[in-house]
Design a protein that fits this description.
two-stranded antiparallel ribbon; single chain; alpha/beta; 211 residues; globular; Rossmann fold; 5-stranded mixed β-sheet; 8 helices
């Protein structure tokens, strides 16, 4: 029997900045809904940057979920493969995590250990400047199609996912159970309790203190 390739499915991004969290939410959902053979690793890469380089160097097939500024209409999903992946991860950087992951790819390349096959499943963000916010609906709706695209890509290499008879509970996520989608969205205070665009109450106090 032929040896199965070592596969890394990676979600990168920052859950705390609205659509920046797309990559993590996608790999999180994939983990809850599907199971794979032992040669496939699903990883919440968050904003770890160069800490991920050993995982990338060890992979033969790499799938990355991320929010990417393609310059397309918000919520648009675009697939990029192989040699084009570093180009798009480096273009129009939105945040430090993208710079970090571009360095991961570059470092793996310096060692001559880039994965032979790479797929970037990117979605154009709607909103990034919302600290504590969650995915906007056009981006959230792309989680299912993004997972389908990744599964179809992996199937080209004979890597088949098994749909779980019952999805795992949210607390069985890859990430912290404190940051599951339901708890994260449900626990966010209202704008009146915690304004995120410069709280007028604090600004007024600051202004009075300067008089």
């Amino acid at each position: 029997m032929a040896t199965q390739p070592k596969v890394l499915v990676l979600g990168i991004g920052n859950l705390l900045w609205a659509d920046e969290g797309f990559g993590v939410r996608a790999v999180e959902r994939m983990h809850l809904d599907y199971e794979f053979d032992d040669n496939v690793s699903l990883v919440d890469g968050g904003t770890q940057g160069l800490y991920l380089v050993q995982d990338v160097r060890a992979a033969e097939v790499l799938v990355v979920f991320d929010a990417v500024d393609y310059g397309l209409p918000p919520g648009t999903m675009k697939l990029v493969e192989d040699a084009e992946v570093p180009q798009f991860l480096g273009a129009k950087k939105m945040s430090l995590h993208q710079t970090g992951f571009q360095e991961v790819i570059a470092t793996a390349g310096m060692f001559g250990e880039l994965p032979e096959h790479m797929l970037l499943v990117g979605v154009q963000p709607v909103e990034l400047e919302d600290y504590g916010g969650s995915l906007r609906e056009p981006v959230k709706r792309q989680i299912g199609p993004a997972i389908d695209a990744a599964l179809a890509y992996l199937a080209r290499f004979g890597i088949l996912a098994r749909k779980r008879p019952h999805a795992l509970a949210e607390h069985q996520t890859l990430a912290s159970s404190e940051l599951t989608m339901e708890r994260y969205e449900g626990g966010r205070p209202s704008d009146s309790d915690a304004c995120r665009s410069g709280d007028a109450r604090v600004l007024a106090l600051t202004a009075r203190g300067k008089r």
